[in-house]
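> forwarded from #structure-qc
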């Protein structure tokens, strides 16, 4: 009888311990806490994501496609008046571009950011404040301007990656290029500055492209920061002219050179 009682007592103890463990697991599941042996990070966020691939720190100008390809880049938006018009023109001519967005504008207009991505264009970080004196500011300030804008743009884009960084006014520094490259963004320059932001007139914008294209393949336009009616009109003329001259269209390089 003593043996039987001992066996029964052991069985009850095992059952009780099992019940407590099951009860704790159910409580954890109901509360959102990880169960025993489970990683909190894995439960909350899934597997850790790999860090972005570091890009070259040098400023890109060349076209991925090489040859006679040119790169269309458009800065300072997105803007609800001008960006849709430029997207329509680009689509009409089958051209893809890089949109260099200001972080708060992207946050304000996620529908436009989504449209840019849906149409097959690429995204570029153009900082939070469009501060053309960034090269005179602290490294901490540059980092905040660049990385906060990147997050705003990617959040507005539903997770699409920002692939380039363009310093406002070309105010790059070795630190800003390093920060961007370590975050997976290639620093992006330009060869043809249309100066459309100065509102020189449609004809002047078009002539600048024609006269300065020999400088290199990356052309700078703007869809934000002011009245861009002249830019819209110029883009309608520039794209077919480029095709007539035998140019194709590409994106700027992200890896070497």
């Amino acid at each position: 009888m003593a043996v039987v009682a001992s066996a029964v007592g052991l069985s009850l103890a095992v059952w009780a311990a099992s019940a407590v463990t099951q009860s704790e697991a159910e409580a954890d599941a109901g509360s959102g806490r990880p169960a025993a042996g489970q990683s909190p990070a894995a439960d909350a966020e899934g597997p850790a994501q790999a860090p972005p691939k570091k890009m070259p720190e040098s400023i890109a100008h060349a076209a991925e496609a090489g040859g006679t390809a040119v790169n269309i880049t458009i800065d300072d938006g997105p803007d609800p008046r001008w960006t849709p018009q430029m997207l329509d023109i680009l689509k009409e001519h089958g051209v893809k571009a890089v949109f260099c967005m200001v972080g708060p504008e992207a946050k304000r207009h996620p529908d436009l950011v989504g449209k840019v991505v849906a149409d097959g264009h690429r995204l570029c970080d153009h900082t939070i404040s469009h501060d053309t004196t960034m090269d005179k500011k602290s490294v901490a300030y540059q980092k905040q301007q660049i990385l906060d804008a990147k997050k705003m743009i990617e959040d507005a884009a539903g997770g699409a990656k920002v692939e380039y960084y363009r310093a406002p006014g070309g105010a790059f520094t070795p630190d800003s290029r390093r920060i961007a490259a370590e975050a997976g963004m290639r620093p992006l320059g330009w060869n043809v500055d249309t100066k459309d932001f100065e509102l020189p007139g449609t004809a002047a914008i078009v002539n600048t492209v024609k006269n300065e294209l020999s400088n290199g393949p990356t052309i700078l336009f703007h869809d934000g920061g002011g009245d861009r009616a002249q830019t819209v009109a110029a883009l309608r003329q520039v794209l077919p002219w480029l095709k007539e001259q035998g140019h194709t269209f590409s994106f700027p390089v992200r890896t070497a050179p």
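QC bot note: The chain is about 45% helix and 10% strand. Residues 1-46 have pLDDT under 50 and may be disordered.
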